[in-house]
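Worked Example 4.2. Read the sequence first, then its C-alpha cells.
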Amino acid sequence: MHLELETARRAARAGAKIVSTRGRDLGAVQSKSTATDMVTETDIAAGVAAVREIMAIDSSARFVIEEPEVHELADAPRGQLDDPEVWVLDPLDGTTSYVHGYPCFSVAVALLREGTPVAGAVYNVAMDELVSAAEGFGAWSGDASIRTGTATRLDQALLITGFPYDRGALLDKQLEILGRFLRSPVHGIRRDGSAAVDCTHVAAGRADGFWEFGLKPWDMAAGIIILREAGAHVTGIDGKPWSVRSTGLIAANPHLHEPMSQVILGELTHSDLSDGSDGPASD
C-alpha cells in the first residue's frame, strides 16, 4: 500500500462525507476577496475532517489550507509551499456551485515535496467519485486506472475552462481566448466551477484539455499529480513549467497541449487552428 496515496484518499473521503451529509444545510455564507468568492461553514467543517484524518496517520504533518480557520479548529500546524513535505487542501472546491446546488464541487487533497505534488485525491461529491494518484503509481478513479483521451486536433476536442474572480483585465483576457477557441472550432467548451474536478475530467479522458487563469495552489495541486500520472502534459498558464507559484494552468493530452498553448498565448490564426471546415463549433 502506498501510504501517502492512501492518506490523501482517506482525507478526501472524510471531507466529502461532511459535505455530503450536510447537503443543502449551508450554515453561514460569507464573501472573501470578492462577492463571488465565498466560504461556507461546510468548507471549514470539511477541512477540519480532512486534516484530522491526515494527522491521525502523521502527527507531524504540516498544512497549507485555503480556509485559515481550519488551522485553529483542527490544531493543524501551518506549513509553506516549498517545505520538504506539506499537505495542501481545498476543503470545498466549487463553493459557488455548492451554494446554488449546482452539482460540481469537490474536496481536494495533495502532498507536496519541496513544491512538487507527489500524491493527491479529488473527491467529486456530486458524482460520488474519488480520483487519486501518486508519483509512479498511476491515476485512478476508484479502483480503475485512468488515462487521458486520444484526440489529436483541436477540432476534435472538448475543452474545459473557468472564469476568474477578477472581473477586470484578467476576465477580458479570458474572454478573448474563449473566442479564439470557439472560432477554431472545437467540439465544445464547458465550465463547471471546480478546477480540481476539471483536472480529473481531462485525466480520465472525459475532456481533452483544460485552462484557467487566477488559480491558487490548493485549486491545482491534487489535479496536477492526477493529470501527470494519467499521461497529460501540464504547464503554467504562461506555458512555462508548472510550479506552486503558477497562477493558472494549461493541461491536455500530449497531442493537444502545444496547439492549446499556442491559442492561449495568441500565436495561431484561425486558419492554423481549423481542419478547413467552415462549420460552427458544436456546444
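Now turn to a second chain, presented in exactly the same format:
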Amino acid sequence: MSKVFVITGPSGVGKGTLIARLLERVPGLELSISATTREPREGEVDGRDYHFLAPDEFDRRIAAEDFIEFATYSGHRYGTLRSEVRNRLEEGHSVVLEIEVQGARQVRAAMRESVQVFIAPPDPASLRRRLESRGTDSLEAIDARLEVAEQEMAAQGEFAHTVVNDDLDRAADELEGIVRAEIGIPLDSGANDQTTR
C-alpha cells in the first residue's frame, strides 16, 4: 500500500543523506520535490532538486491552494505541491517528504495517515559542526538555523518515530526498518547482516 512518509528534523541533522540511502534501499519509494523561493545553490537543478519559484508565483500557488504545506524558513519559503504527492501515489509509489517541522504539522493535519519521522542529532554541537562543514551558509545564517533548531528539537515528542543520527549506518538501517515495516516490505535477507540491535 502506498504511503506518505514525512521526514523532518533540524537543519544540518543529515536528513538528505539518510533519505538518499533510503531511496537506494527501498523499492517503489520516491522523493517529493519541494518548491522554494530561494535561489539555487551551485549544482542544483530546477525540477530535480527543487521547483524554484519566484515569490509572486509562490503566492499565486498558495492562493490556488496548490500546496499541502508551506512554510517560511531562514527568510525563504518552501512548500509541497499537492500534484507532486498525488501523481506519485496514483502511480503506486510511496512518497517521502523532506520538510521542516512546521510543514510536518500541516501535513499531519491534512493527511493523518502520513507516517512522521523526526531525525534528531546526538547533541546540539553536532548541528553547528555539520552546518559549518557544508560551507553553504554564512555564520549569520548558521546562527539563525541553530535558533530555529532549538525550537524544532522541542517538538520531537510530537512525532511517531525518532531516529537519532549519531552513526550514519545505524541511523539509515533504523529508518529503513521503519519504512519497510509501514509498507510491508521485508528486509532483504543479508542486507543488514552487519547490524545487531
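Notes for the reader: Strands lie at 4-8, 29-31, 35-36, 51-52, 67-73, 76-81, 94-98, 115-120, 161-164. The longest strand covers residues 67-73.
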